[in-house]
Q: What sequence folds into this?
């Protein structure tokens, strides 16, 4: 046996011996307790939904002086926390929130944490809770708005085997949003505008139907419920979209450098792509010209729209995993309709270019500070200097914008 082969054999035996010793040392007589852990792997091919709900938020909202019946600051804070969760867990395809709850829908084939229900739920709930506290001061400022004690959220995991089951779940949550918001709007209208006590307002609304509450609001509180913001009436939908932005691509002028390019964009280093041939490596790089290209990155966008009907799901077939370039089953799962691919438009007169697949109501803009806006005035004004909106939720750090249907 040659000396090099002998050394290799010795090294292999030494590594194997060290590994065995390490494995034996890592174990202990107490390791048997792992056998008591209960396996909780979610069954395959099912939508995994994690719903988080605020614990004792009636008292929490009173202690922190939330506006009644809806406090936009608290709702925006919930949306920001939910968007942070989505940014960390890319397998969430859609989320829906209202009041003090949020539902996160993981795609059917996710392998996150080996589909262990307890791991998925605890990570989502802890991330949401931490984000809620972390972003509190963005929305509640001043001496009287300090967080008095930590909020708490509970969570649960539910599995749905079919698209219809998952859609019905989200429809149930949105219907619940409408029922609760109508009651709360009527209740606080009687308390604030009519001067009733809480007990009197509760007695006044006991046994009433939706039509009765609408009539009470209109006749006694001078409020048309249909004119209330969709933000309150329909809740918030979070989903993924593509943010399109400009980059400058530098092309070489020399023959040997043909095919190399440098991408120039904010926050990126200008480095030419490596060539395989030695000739191109040694050739000097000369700038031949600069042209503008487009790059995309996924962002979380938020909308306040109806998700009970079919139109939302026909407009967003990718949520259900349906290829929108070819005929497929309809989102409702039965009539064989083709989900049509919507038209796209690009605004090239803005500082940042944003592709808008659904120009009816989703218009986005990016300014020099990389703040994503939802602005219905983009079409009317067209320049970034003249756009102002009160619908800004957060910056790209949180990856969330609000869309405006107008």
A:
């Amino acid at each position: 046996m040659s000396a090099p082969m002998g050394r290799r054999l010795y090294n292999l035996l030494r590594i194997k011996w060290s590994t065995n010793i390490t494995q034996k040392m890592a174990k202990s007589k107490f390791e048997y307790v792992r056998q008591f852990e209960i396996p909780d792997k979610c069954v395959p091919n099912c939508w995994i939904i994690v719903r988080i709900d605020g614990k004792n938020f009636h008292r929490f909202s009173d202690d922190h002086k939330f506006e009644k019946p809806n406090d936009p600051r608290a709702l925006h804070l919930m949306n920001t926390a939910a968007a942070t969760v989505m940014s960390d867990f890319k397998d969430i395809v859609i989320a829906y929130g209202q009041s003090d709850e949020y539902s996160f829908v993981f795609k059917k084939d996710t392998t996150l944490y080996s589909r262990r229900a307890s791991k998925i739920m605890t990570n989502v709930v802890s991330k949401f809770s931490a984000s809620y506290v972390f972003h509190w001061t963005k929305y509640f400022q001043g001496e009287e708005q300090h967080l008095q004690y930590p909020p708490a959220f509970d969570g649960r995991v539910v599995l749905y085997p079919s698209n219809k089951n998952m859609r019905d779940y989200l429809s149930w949550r949105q219907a619940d949003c409408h029922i609760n918001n109508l009651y709360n709007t009527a209740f606080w209208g009687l308390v604030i505008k009519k001067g009733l006590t809480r007990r009197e307002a509760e007695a006044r609304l006991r046994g009433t139907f939706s039509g009765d509450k609408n009539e009470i609001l209109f006749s006694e509180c001078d409020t048309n419920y249909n004119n209330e913001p969709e933000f309150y009436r329909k809740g918030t939908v979070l989903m993924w979209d593509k943010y399109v932005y400009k980059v400058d691509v530098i092309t070489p002028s020399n023959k040997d450098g043909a095919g190399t390019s440098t991408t120039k964009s904010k926050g990126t280093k200008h480095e030419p792509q490596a060539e395989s041939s030695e000739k191109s490596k040694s050739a000097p790089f000369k700038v031949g010209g600069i042209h503008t290209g487009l790059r995309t990155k996924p962002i979380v966008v938020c909308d306040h729209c109806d998700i009970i009907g079919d139109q939302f799901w026909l407009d967003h077939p990718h949520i259900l995993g349906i290829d929108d370039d070819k005929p497929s089953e309809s989102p409702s799962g039965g009539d064989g309709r083709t989900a049509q691919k919507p038209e796209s438009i690009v605004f090239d007169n803005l500082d940042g270019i944003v592709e808008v697949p659904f120009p009816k109501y989703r218009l986005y803009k990016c300014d020099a500070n990389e703040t994503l806006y939802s602005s219905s005035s983009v079409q009317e004004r067209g320049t970034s200097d003249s756009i102002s909106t009160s619908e800004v939720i957060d910056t790209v750090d949180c990856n969330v914008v609000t869309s405006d249907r107008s």
